[in-house]
Design a protein that fits this description.
The protein is an alpha+beta fold. It has a single domain (4-63), classed as SH3 type barrels. The chain has one helix at 4-16, and strands at residues 19-24, 29-37, 41-46, 49-54, 58-63. The longest helix has 13 residues, at 4-16. The protein is globular, with a radius of gyration of 15 Å.
Length: 80
């Protein structure tokens, strides 16, 4: 079952159509942009072709640009 952070992260990638590099647990590297996700898989598109990738096969998702999903502002007392 996906975590809230996982869903927010992938939803952001879908909304921005940001190019990502996905590394699978077997070492395969995939590149493209994510178009859809559900609890078990994502759809990734590159050069007009779409691939279904099972989330349990994914090791790492690396966006092409930095993203910030949480507010990291810290006030002067050090509290968030």
């Amino acid at each position: 079952m996906p975590t809230v952070m996982e869903e927010k992260f992938i939803d952001h990638l879908i909304a921005t159509r940001q190019v990502v590099t996905v590394f699978l647990v077997n070492g395969v590297k995939l590149q493209g942009y994510t178009t859809f996700q559900d609890d078990e898989c994502i759809l990734m598109t590159r050069d007009g072709l779409t691939q279904l990738i099972y989330k349990k096969a994914i090791s790492t998702i690396m966006p092409s640009e930095p993203i910030q999903l949480i507010d990291l502002d810290v006030n002067s007392s050090g509290n968030r």
